[in-house]
Design brief:
- It contains 18 helices and 23 strands.
- The protein has 3 domains: 47-288, PAS domain (Beta-Lactamase, 2-Layer Sandwich); 433-592, Heat Shock Protein 90, CATH 3.30.565; 605-733, Response regulator (Rossmann fold), CATH 3.40.50.
- The chain starts with 14 loop residues before the first helix and ends with a helix.
- It is an alpha+beta fold and 736 residues long.
- The strands form 5 sheets. Strands 1, 2, 3, 4, 5 and 6 form a 6-stranded antiparallel beta sheet that branches. A 5-stranded antiparallel beta sheet has the order 8-7-11-10-9, with helices on both faces. A 5-stranded mixed beta sheet has the order 13-15-16-18-17.
């Protein structure tokens, strides 16, 4: 039921008030628009002027850098001519050539060393005599040597930055060298003094945020002022305007974010014409725009003052209609208050209806749960009688007879009925977990056919079972439901087919990292995985929440994974789930490792002569058929059985007969129930061993008896009942 306020007629506002409001809005908008337009124009002008100034300054730096490189290239040209003349004259001694190279670069600050290398890269001559005949060109020089060898051009080449012997940065400028036949004979290489360029850039006054950088045409930084050792060798090739300038050998300006500190900068870049180099100049945009910001503050203050003045004038004019507006306001307030009260009343009525509907639904669910639990309890009593008599009949007939085969089929049918009642009790939340040590491999193998039927023909079942699995401590019925529940979820996630994997493994877990993780220790893991659609992170985060489901109406209750989580935690373990869209889902259930124990006796073995066969059992159950059948089973085992149908009769028997060794009592009985009887018995006989058996057990009621007790779940096998009674008697005989 939705509630909304009713439509109300709009009161006519005086014409003068509307006109004043419109006028005020128009004037204020004009002031704001004009102010912003002026500020943006001023900002654009400041940036444009800065770009023009940087472009002119960058041109000067580029021209000087180009002249410096031409000087070095000229020296290299004279070296090439001298080498040709020396070859024609029959060659000169290496020492003389080394001395000549040293003389040629004397006074040339742009170069620290000049060398001649053969086609293999070995230095033949050098202004640094120690290198001649003893060293190879650096790796960067060998790359340029290969370029000259494969390109018949005299164009000079420049390498990236490399460390010189003195620790400073240098770069190679190389020219192609040929012999008298025009064949490639090596290169002449000049080691550039990059500090020379930085010192020249330093001599030009920039503002404190200014920076000048020498780049290779591929974008690699060769030198910079202020000098930053950490950026030498880095590349700006992907940044505008470097990308266009370096690719097309042109000049450009732009605004860009600094790759060093992320600050906004205005940058100009100019490429050299004859050499694969470029020079850039940049300044901080914040520093350039600082005067504009101060001017903007003045503009904004002026605009605010103008708005205040105009607003004051309009306020004075508006006072003429104040009385009319006041009266209209009071009327509207009274009307709004009445409408608000009406809306709140309607909302309260709607909320009450929703609450009552929810209460009725909860009462219906509780009633269904109680009815289901009661039906399951009665049905378990019937199955107890059926299974008990089948056990008795199986003991009395030949193992290979047709009758034995029919009895076995009857027993299996009755056990399937018991499984059904377990599911009903689980729905009604009246199902205590009876954990026992078991091999999960056996559970998975027995369920393979059921899983294939549940999954459908278009899904392949794959089992990966541990070679030597530990025993897991878990309720057998509930672990089957868990695996089946996970398999159904996997089937729904693979509408077009796929692979469903069931895996078992032994594992040791460390301290938990998430709430659903189990404590540290040894566990037996069973994993159910699929190749389905998977879950998004937001869905995965809610996977264990009760009633959360992504399935359509009628396709899921949202309780599947929450029940899996609850069983694992109640059993002392935990659950981990992994999933991603398109990658499927994997749910791992960790169950505590059980201590090694002797195998359970086969069916009927308890009747062969239990430890307590000479003991006297007081049997209490309000259902006569259950009581009689259970009594006969116990008698076949050799026990002396005393029967009574209620708690009062049991207390009378105990008061009169001191030979009673153990009490076997139902839990849910009219009048005095099993836990209350246990408390009363403990007052009379503190050491009396007690075993409960019931098809409708309330775990909290049993735990409230404040005693040690064992629970046998109806319907039971004779061997199960015998094992519990013998264990209780053994505990009684063993000193605490």
């Amino acid at each position: 039921m939705s509630v909304s306020a009713p439509d109300r007629p709009t009161s006519p506002m005086p014409a003068i008030s509307r006109s004043l409001q419109i006028l005020a809005a128009v004037v204020l908008l004009l002031i704001v628009a004009v102010t912003m337009q002026q500020l943006l124009q001023l900002r654009s002008g400041v940036l444009d002027d800065t770009k023009r100034q940087l472009a002119r300054l960058d041109m000067v730096f580029a021209e000087h850098t180009g002249r410096a490189m031409e000087t070095v290239d000229l020296v290299m040209g004279t070296v090439i001519e001298a080498l040709h003349e020396s070859d024609q004259a029959g060659g000169a001694a290496p020492v003389a050539i080394n001395d000549d190279l040293q003389r040629r670069i004397a006074g040339v600050r742009e170069v620290t060393e000049i060398a001649v290398a053969d086609p293999s890269g070995r230095i033949l001559y050098s202004s640094r005599a120690a290198a001649a005949g003893n060293e190879m060109l650096p790796a960067a020089g060998l790359a340029l040597l290969h370029h000259h060898a494969t390109h018949a051009t005299d164009a000079p080449q420049v390498s990236g930055p490399l460390r010189a012997a003195d620790g400073h940065w240098t770069a190679l400028l190389t020219r192609r060298l040929t012999n008298a036949r025009g064949e490639f004979a090596g290169v002449v290489a000049a080691f550039l003094n990059l500090r020379y360029f930085e010192e020249f850039y330093k001599a030009v006054e920039l503002n404190e945020s200014g920076a000048i950088t020498l780049h290779h045409r591929d974008g690699t930084v060769l030198a910079s002022y202020p000098h930053r050792d950490d950026i030498v060798g880095s590349t700006y090739a992907a940044l505008p305007p470097f990308k266009d300038v370096l690719a097309h050998a042109i000049a450009g300006t732009a605004m860009m974010d600094s790759p060093i500190d992320g600050s906004s900068r205005v940058v100009a870049i100019q490429a050299l014409k004859l050499f694969p180099l470029a020079v850039s100049v940049s300044v901080s945009a914040d520093q350039i725009l600082a005067p504009w910001r101060r001017q903007s503050d003045v503009f904004l203050v002026s605009a605010v003052v103008a708005c205040v003045v105009i607003g004051t004038l309009l306020l004075l004019l508006a006072q003429q209609s104040h009385k009319v507006e006041t009266l209209l306001g009071e009327f509207r307030s009274a009307r709004d208050a009445a409408e608000s009260a009406n809306v709140r009343l309607l909302e309260q009525m709607a909320e009450r209806e929703r609450t009552e509907a929810a209460l009725r639904q909860a009462q219906r669910i509780e009633a269904v749960g109680q009815l289901t639990g009661g039906v399951a309890h009665d049905f378990n009593n019937l199955l107890t009688v059926v299974l008990g008599n089948i056990d008795l009949l199986q003991q009395s007939c030949a193992q290979e007879s047709v009758t034995a085969e029919r009895l076995e089929r009857m027993r299996k049918a009755a056990e399937r009925g018991a499984t059904l009642t377990d599911q009903l009790l689980a729905f009604a939340r009246r199902q205590p977990l009876v954990a026992r040590a078991m091999k999960l491999n056996d559970v998975v193998q027995e369920m393979t056919g059921l899983l294939q039927s549940a999954a459908g023909g278009n899904i392949r079942i794959e089992t990966l079972l541990a070679d030597d699995p530990w025993l897991a401590l878990v309720d057998p019925t509930q672990i089957e439901l868990v695996i089946l529940n996970l398999a159904i979820n996997a089937r729904d996630a693979m509408p077009t087919g796929g692979t469903l994997t069931v895996e078992t493994a032994n594992t040791h877990l460390g301290p938990p990292e998430r709430p659903e993780d189990p404590p540290a220790g040894d566990y037996v893991m069973v994993r159910v995985g699929d190749t389905g659609t998977g879950m998004a992170p937001d869905v995965l985060a809610k996977a264990f929440e009760p009633f959360f489901t992504t399935k359509g109406p009628g396709r899921g209750s949202g309780l599947g994974l929450s029940q899996v989580f609850g069983l694992a935690r109640q059993s002392g373990g935990g659950v981990r789930i992994e999933s991603a869209p398109g990658l499927g889902t994997s749910v791992r259930v960790f169950l505590p490792r059980a201590a090694p124990a002797a195998d359970e006796p086969p069916a009927g073995a308890a009747a062969a002569g239990p430890v307590g066969s000479a003991s006297t059992v007081l049997l209490v159950d309000d259902d006569e058929a259950v009581r009689c059948t259970t009594g006969m089973i116990l008698q076949t085992m050799g026990y002396t059985v005393l029967q009574t149908e209620g708690g009062e009769g049991a207390l009378e028997r105990l008061a009169d007969d001191s030979e009673i060794d153990i009490l076997l009592t139902d839990v849910a009985m009219p009048g005095m129930n099993g836990p209350e009887l246990a408390r009363r018995v403990r007052e009379l006989r503190p050491a009396m061993p007690i075993v409960f058996f019931s098809g409708y057990a309330d775990p909290e009621a049993v735990a409230g008896a404040s005693i040690r007790q064992r629970i046998v779940r109806k319907p039971f096998r004779a061997s199960e009942l015998a094992a519990q009674i013998e264990a209780a008697l053994a505990e009684h005989r063993t000193p605490a």
